[in-house]
Amino acid sequence: MPDNQSRPVASAVPLPPVFETLVVVGPGLIGSSVLRRAREFGGLARRVIAVDVSPEVRARVSELGIADEVMADAAEAVAQADCVMLCVPVGAMGPVAAQVLPAMRPGAILTEVGSTKVSVIEAITPYLRPDVPYVPAHPMAGTEFSGPDAGFATLFEKRWCLLTPLDNTPVEAVDAIRTLWERCGARLREMTPAHHDRVCAIVSHLPHLLAFTICGTADDLADETRSEVLDFAASGFRDFTRIAASDPIMWRDIFLLNRDALLEMLARFMEDAQAMARAIRWGDEAYIVDRIERGRKIRKSLIENEQA
Amino acid sequence: MPDNQSRPVASAVPLPPVFETLVVVGPGLIGSSVLRRAREFGGLARRVIAVDVSPEVRARVSELGIADEVMADAAEAVAQADCVMLCVPVGAMGPVAAQVLPAMRPGAILTEVGSTKVSVIEAITPYLRPDVPYVPAHPMAGTEFSGPDAGFATLFEKRWCLLTPLDNTPVEAVDAIRTLWERCGARLREMTPAHHDRVCAIVSHLPHLLAFTICGTADDLADETRSEVLDFAASGFRDFTRIAASDPIMWRDIFLLNRDALLEMLARFMEDAQAMARAIRWGDEAYIVDRIERGRKIRKSLIENEQA
After folding, report:
1. What 3-state class would DSSP assign to B189?
2. Fewer Cβ atoms within 10 A, N terminus or C terminus of chain A?
3. In this complex, which of A214, A242, A277 lies closest to B263 when CB atoms are compared?
4. How buried is A222 (Cβ within 10 angstroms: 0-12 exposed, 13-18 middle, 19+ buried)?
């Protein structure tokens, strides 16, 4: 193979693939990155099929050459698979599961990559079959870009993938999905769906909500000040806008589908922000310094934790 | 000069310096960067004197060799200067002005670099002399580090420096300070002190307040979740922590001294966040998408504006 030398060492020792035929429904940022990983690094599946309802997305995936087959009919595709991975927005997981589950082979594994877990599991549960193991997963990776062009084979490297298996999920199915994500370069952790949703509410969903909100607050200012926000954004505002560039439909769904955990974290945050406002109004220096010190402490822990 | 080739082209054509003797009171991140700029690029002052109350800071500045003289007595130092630049925390501007102004030469210029302008001007005004022009300035540059070791000569390049002259500030004094900052590589803009404070409240002070607050909210969570916040911070939370690493005393002072503008912006933000919470609770998809779209629009404008 002429391009062998430029490939990572991992592919020099071919691993037997985890699956025979992997179907990725929704080859967007995450789905197309899984397809690319399978193609470029091996070890995931002998054959990968991409399914999408959009003719434009299908045409683009064909052009990119990242799947062995590109299909419009999910039922037809999943009938060939021993693993089906749903990579659609969290709001679409239920309807798509309703469509694919009846067509799946007995023993084939269903998995998905939704950013919320309690609501996605609730949406999928009515359609589950006893002979199709279901392994909910959440690869915590992404960029502010979306669509099949945005993916890349190393997206998941050193990123976390959280598994939230159900009480009755067979351990072999969990192990297969764990191996698949390990071969994508991810670090794995297991937790309950409810705990997952609380953790993601504070580390991801609340920061995004605050980022969208402050952009809106700035956008509502009088014209002169608004244009200056753009000029002078480097002073802190800019840091909040990178994550505010993310896909609106995806985030609408996440906010609505992790509602309870997100509203709880937002309520805690609002109490803390009100307390800070009160300390500023009344000149409570000790309170202000204490809160700032905590921020610095967390930053320091992140640096020590090699997450910064 | 053996190291001439590694220097920027600008220093090849020596400019007559703006000042004879520049005194920098408080050689921290900003002050030491001005000293380094004067030393490495020329054109600012023939002679630079650093003043600090801390023996440790004075010793360090002497070691670094970034000032012609390092002094403890501000009055003694400023008596030699035709420009005195106060680079102390905004809360210290008044007391330091009270100390230096009586000792300044007639016609010498007083300037400062405070991040809030209305309150700093109020604090300095009682000590002003009719024969000492005062030019308030705010170089919008910084890192999360502080102290004389944190500075560097190119800190101000392509960054904004806002001038907020008073009605009676002589235009020659404003021009001299403008030229000084231009020679530091900064872009200049003039505005009123009150407008400055509103703009900085939204682009800098509110983002910092939110960043400190969310770190505190995370820190208050149960131990297990808190440790996971650190593990999974890459999902958005991390972006908020960089600015939360800034100096606590500096930020305490900024929050207290830009209280009115900051509380107004925070109140607007809280209303917007409450509206978002309500939309999430009641499933108002159109509202949520509209707010997210605005965030994306602002991000896009920043990229077009080359500020991202």
Report:
1. strand
2. N
3. A277
4. exposed
**What residues contact residue A128 under an 8 Å CB cut-off, 6+ apart?**
A101, A110, A134
Task: State residue A230's pLDDT score.
Answer: 83
Distance from CA of A92 to the nearest CA of B (A): 15
pLDDT 10s digits, B150-174: 999 999 999 999 999 999 999 999 9
A-chain CB neighbours of B238 within 8 Å are 302, 307-308
- Is the ipTM beyond the 0.90 threshold? no
Query: Which residues of chain A make contact with B249, given a CB cutoff of 8 A?
Result: 289
Per the CB < 8 Å rule, is B200 touching A240?
A: no
| Chain B CB contacts of A233 below 8 Å | 203, 302, 305, 307-308
Structure tokens at A85: 């991975």
Longest dimension (CA), chain B: 71
Sheet with A134-139, edge to edge strand ranges: A69-71, A45-51, A19-25, A83-86, A109-112, A134-139, A160-163, A187-190
Order of strands across the sheet that contains B19-25: B69-71, B45-51, B19-25, B83-86, B109-112, B134-139, B160-163, B187-190
| DSSP bridge pairs for A25 | A51, A86
* pLDDT tens-digit map of A247-301: 888 899 999 999 999 999 999 999 999 999 999 999 999 999 999 998 888 888 8
pLDDT of A127 reads 98
- For the stretch B122-157, pLDDT in tens is 999 999 999 999 999 999 988 778 899 999 999 999
Residue B60 has pLDDT above 90, yes or no: yes
Whether pLDDT at B242 is above 50 = yes
**In A, which residues are within 8 Å of B244 by CB distance?**
292, 295-296, 298-299
Q: How far is A33 from chain B (nearest CA, A)?
A: 17
Q: What is the dihedral of CA B51, B54, B56, B58, to 10 degrees?
A: 10
Q: Which CATH superfamily is domain A196-304 in?
A: 6-phosphogluconate dehydrogenase C-terminal like domain (1.10.3660.10)
- Give A251's contacts in chain B (Cβ within 8 Å): 288, 292
Question: What are the tens digits of pLDDT across the range A177-189?
Answer: 999 999 999 999 9
A52: closest CA of chain B, how far (Å): 23
Give the domain ranges of chain B: 4-191, 196-304
pLDDT score at A25:
98
Among the partner-chain residues A215, A289, A308, the one whose CB lies closest to the CB of B294 is: A215
Using the beta-carbon criterion (under 8 Å), do B249 and A289 form an inter-chain contact?
A: yes
Task: Decide if B4-191 and B196-304 have a common fold.
Answer: no
C-beta of residue A191 within 8 angstroms of C-beta of residue B239 = no
Place A4 in a pLDDT band, splitting at 50, 70 and 90: very low
| Class of domain A4-191 as given by CATH | alpha beta
Q: Which of B199, B212, B269 sits opposite A292 (nearest CB)?
A: B212
pLDDT level of residue A2 (50, 70, 90 thresholds): very low
